[in-house]
Amino acid sequence: MRVVVDLTRCQGYGQCAFAAPDVFRMARTEALMYELNPDDREREQVLRAVAACPVQAMVIDEMGTLGRPEKADAAGPGMPDRVGRIVIVGASLAGLRAAATLRKEGYQGSLTLIGDESCEPYDRPPLSKQVLNGQVLAAQTMLPRRGELDAGWLLGTPATGLDLAGKQVLLADGRHVGFDRLLIATGVRARPWPNAAEGALDGVFVLRSREDASLLRQRLGDGVNRVLVIGAGFTGSEIASACRDLGLAVTVAERGPAPLVGALGGVIGSIAGEIQREHGVDLRCGVTVTALEGDGDGRLRRAQLSDGSAVDAEVAVVTLGAERNVEWLEGSGLAAGVWGVGCDAGCRAFDVNGIVCDDIFVAGDVARFPHPVYGYQFLTLEHWGNAVTQAQVAAHNMISAPTGRWPHLSLPVFWSAQFGVNIKSVGVPTFADEVVITQGSVADRRFVAAYGYRGRVTAAVTFDQAMWLEFYQDLIEKAAPFPPAFDMVGRPNGVRPVPARIPERVNAIHDATVVVTGHNPDERRATLVTGHE
Ligand SMILES: Cc1cc2nc3c(=O)[nH]c(=O)nc-3n(C[C@H](O)[C@H](O)[C@H](O)COP(=O)(O)OP(=O)(O)OC[C@H]3O[C@@H](n4cnc5c(N)ncnc54)[C@H](O)[C@@H]3O)c2cc1C
Ligand code: SF4
């Protein structure tokens, strides 16, 4: 059977670990690790755990068929449009959730999922956690089946183009797939090491796919002396943590002043740095890796750093962020580029002029959408929870009349498990000028930090205090004053807000060039210039 825990909801109470100790395990206090594909003999235990979970965070295989309803609602002016052809490009978390939502909401027409990976959709978060530390095999990370989905699957089939006017997706094998409505859910890929020859050395890895995880896991078990992790974002830090679990020596090289600084700012990042060092990581901040060197047989041996030092390592994992999978949309007329695919809060894609397309929708890591709570700023998120909720909103809107459409207003929620600590965040921590520890103790590595921007709460981060997240979510949604003025359980004495030390924004659109031509309003048009330096 298959299990996935929605760790954005999980509050780390651990009842599941009591009900099914062979399947669920708490690493230290709150970080939940679990089998995604437990043996059928453990089914009874898992069902008990599902029932015990107070926040209903678990999803398991569902029986029955998620098929077409017998009769379509009448489509017409003002009525939901539940027939026709819907195509989803990107058959992973967002694509699968959207497909299931379409059927659950009564979509009756044809449904096709196009994916370039040849396997069924799987869950990525365990790849840098349970898979690397050997608890779960990469092949056992498939997402639960939510009923037998009545859909056509074109797997192992990359989409290579989009004909917007002709309403067709072009496939690498030369086929064309026609649609009435399209969902773009092509996600991101790992940014490769910038020097291709160095990146091709045996021992240099990235981590995005199941195959990446399987190869890296295999290599980590091959008697490696030292692993070098390049970049200390969430993925890099989790890899370092898994390596320490395996007893391997790890060096982490980070350009910024601390790990996680790009996501959480310098104050909380430096606490994450202390935790890494306490766990034996050789953490080097404020340095970049300038070169990777191999031996005569093309195997990685050493890395040179910008401070003049060198690190001997047989494995280097490049975790330098992600690139959005948008190349197949080049020339389509959509606002798609290095920043993702621009869309409105109802998930409808923008064309290159910034006008919404009624029939093209976007969801998941590839989407760039405005969030009212953050000054309508456009966000791109690589968060599991966002992929799920945005896919559900997009699917709903695809089959709803304009008046029945929903805005995608969920606050971003993220979790990470590293060095036995469950780190969670709600809101946008980088949309802040100050941060304050509101509850718990930094020394105990169990605390809540609230972030504020110009006198209102904009985000919160918890270290092993997940149960408070909902409370802070409420404060953010109410634009509650910052610093929070009322007494809270476990409030430490004498702490004051301090500058959050958010790094200067790296602007995702710095290499996008748009040329505007024409003089009269009826002839003014934007054109994307690609490959511009
Ligand atoms: C190692 C790792 C650990 C993570 N840990 C966490 C975590 O702890 N917490 C958290 O909140 N999030 C985590 N995430 C992020 C989370 O997994 C993503 O946010 C989520 O997978 C996004 O889903 P998606 O469907 O939008 O994109 P993806 O999962 O990237 O899926 C996109 C799919 O589209 C396919 N595709 C791309 N181009 C084409 C094309 N031209 N034609 C057809 N198919 C195409 C891709 O191959 C892929 O299968 C982690 C991610 C990784 C990689
Ligand atoms: S909240 Fe649910 S999934 Fe999370 S630890 Fe508790 S019982 Fe397990």
From TrEMBL:
Gene3D superfamilies linked: 3.30.390.30, 3.30.70.20, FAD/NAD(P)-binding domain (3.50.50.60)
Cofactors, names only: FAD
Pfam family, one: Fer4_13
Listed InterPro entries: FAD-oxidoreductase/Apoptosis (IPR050446), FAD/NAD-bd_sf (IPR036188), FAD/NAD-binding_dom (IPR023753), FAD/NAD-linked_Rdtase_dimer_sf (IPR016156), Reductase_C (IPR028202)
All copies of domain FAD/NAD(P)-binding, residue ranges: 85-391
Keywords for this protein: FAD, Flavoprotein, Oxidoreductase
Residues of the Reductase C-terminal domain: 414-485
Name by which UniProt lists this protein: FAD-dependent oxidoreductase
Organism of this sequence: Nonomuraea marmarensis
